[in-house]
Amino acid sequence: MFNHAPKALYIHIPFCTNKCHYCDFTSYVLRGQPVDAYLDALESEMERTVESLPPEEILTVFVGGGTPTVLTPPQMERFLTSVKKYFPIHPDAEFTMEANPGTTDLEKLTAMKAGGVNRISFGVQSFDNGLLERIGRIHNVEDVYRSIENARTAGFSNLSIDLMFGLPGQSVEQLSDSVNRALQLGLPHYSLYGLKVEENTLFHTLYERNELPLPPEEDELAMYMLLIDKLKAEGFHHYEISNFAKPGHESRHNITYWRNEPYYGLGAGAHGYARGERHVNIKGIQPYIDAAAQRLPRLETNPVPEHEAMEDFMMVGLRMLEGVNNDRFSAQFPGQTIESVFGEALETVLSQGLIEHTEGSGGGYRLSEKGIPLGNEVFGAFISG
Ligand code: SF4
Predict the structure, then answer these.
(1) Contact status, residue 305 vs residue 372, Cβ threshold 8 Å
(2) What does the alpha-carbon distance between residue 210 and residue 289 come to, in Å, rounded to a whole number?
(3) Most exposed among 43, 213, 249, 292, judged by the fewest C-beta atoms under 10 Å?
(4) Mean pLDDT, the chain, integer
(5) 237-240 and 243-245 as β-strands: parallel, antiparallel, unpaired?
(6) How confident is the model at residue 2 (pLDDT cuts 50, 70, 90)?
């Protein structure tokens, strides 16, 4: 396992203008929230974090949420200044911020750019206004076009958008239209997620009541396959189950997670992984603020047993279409090979044709074409339960 300081930094801003109907992230409706006190607490957490685990060099930063772009321009400036005060950000670091098209005017984007952000991931989800409303998004399609234009005016070129499929009432044709319109924007990165109905969401309540008209499973699969075909035809590299990039624009921060490498995680509800331990921070805003005034605001910290870390390595590593290899495996688990630990599971999924062997880097495995839409089945084979 890695003992060096993480080179990746995640910071959570847990506020949103509204709560989307499918969302189970740590996010709270902004109105009435003590945002400045939260930023103070975040700064305390930064200070305590670098004291307890001094960073060497940060190569990727990801500010997620929530909706980080609900911060006002002065709050944004102050927040980004504190990040740079505590963490030595490499001059070529990838610095991503999530943004909501309804919350990004030119002034804010300019503050983000001046503060070091160089990549924006927009939560667009769909180019169908009716559908956007049905899933509880606050923005419409016009906001998307305006935000992308503003981002370009502010000097951003490394832009990504998220789209969703398998939404209630969504047809394959609607999705196809959304993807065409997304591609017309000419961005270097697209993330495409299938809807998951999570507990404690409005959609879950509707689902339980049989009032959520999800597309049939075969349509959902057709949507996913259509996305892959369209993106590949446009020259995108399908580098992770849900992610597509023009070469050189893969999300370096997310690759840290998929390689099971350590990362700092700060903010309410944030997770982090360092020195063989995973932590989760306190989720509620006021409890987080109160705790951060006294100590590191942890809800829990747990050592990750080696076998569990190996399972994580396989589960997240196989999400990348390049797969996993023995060079990286033995760098994290000296003296072990993928075959010596997972011989039986490998045999099962190889014989089902769901993964295939790869050459180079000590040899490895990746999802086969048949295995890509059945990823969860494959990952499950490496978990001992
Ligand atoms: S904008 Fe994102 S984090 Fe906020 S409620 Fe919607 S899905 Fe959740």
Answers:
(1) no
(2) 39
(3) 213
(4) 96
(5) antiparallel
(6) low
